[in-house]
Amino acid sequence: MNRISAIRLVMARELTEQLKSKAFQISTAIFVIGILASMIIPTLVDDGVEQIPVAVTGSGTTEIMLQLVALGAGDEITIGAQFLGSNVQFNPETSPDRESAVEAVRSGDVQIAIIDGSEIISESQLGATGDLIEQLLYSYEVSNRFSDFGVSPIELQAITAVDPPTFTVLNESADDANANLSYISSTLLYITIITYGLSVAMSVVNEKSSRVVEIVLSTIRSVDLLAGKVLGVGLTGLIQVVVIIGVALVTNIFTENLPLPETGGIVPVLTVSVWFLLGYTFYASVYAVIGSTISKVEDLQGVAFPAMVPILIGFFISFSALEGEETLALKIASFIPFTAPLTMPTRMLLGFAAPWEVIVSLVLQVIGTWFVLRLAARAFGGGLLKDRIRLREVLRTS
Description:
2 domains, single chain, elongated, 4-stranded mixed sheet, alpha/beta, D-Maltodextrin-Binding Protein, domain 2
């Protein structure tokens, strides 16, 4: 059997076993169901408009009620300043006095009470809605003061009708859509690299514990066995990543709950897929070495933990860019092979990385992956036929 056929045979076996495994099927189902639920349920439940009953009493009742209705209808209103409509619908009603308005709030008949255009009463903090009403009443009072000085509503509108300031964004790629995609891709890469890297180590340990590897090595070389395992498990992980992203993109066509940049979903899919392959290959080789040093699955977690540390570091560093700023740690980590698979995709999606930086990072990652693969091939062959062995001894005897 030539080497290509041997690698293909091992890869096909690993791919078949992984696809048929309960872990793969359950995890994929959980991801898909979670995506569908998080994107479809808000669309079905949220009608887009929040109904807010408001009790109004005292001076300015009629004017304030008219402005509340206009504000809730999404119209642009002017009372001393310009407002933009919102996704809330105010339902104002008159109240005879302050006591009645307060009682209406306490009983839950209304959510907000406005007294004399200068006091807002609610059962709890109102957040953005409270800020909106506060600004409305502020503008109402400003309008009254202008009227006291003889400025008519038409003159006041002419004074306040100014163009909004112009926003110039130096980094156009660093918008909310790319920030969301960066968060999703970092999380997805983190989970899949750890999951399928450990799958390689577990596969090696299982074969060692059952002594199947002794039979396998009598027909194919250890380096071909390693290559087949890495390719087979990696292809499984890539299939899962593509399925998850594909389901999210297709669902987004109907729900539009996931903001996408102008490039749509093609660039994110390619970015995540390329760095998944590089990051997975790098760490799969590391985990293959780890698996070759032990013979019991129970020992895997403790031995594999040191390899998880740089993944965790890269994962948390990538979150530093979600505020729209690029830190020095993020820039440095994007050139280190241990952390680049999690940090460079973030810089790319947010538009922080220059083309030359992406190229340099890719070259360094390929070199690092090649080096680890060479090391893994030596360690893999040296440790497979021993029950438990230190890494130093594996490298010395390989």
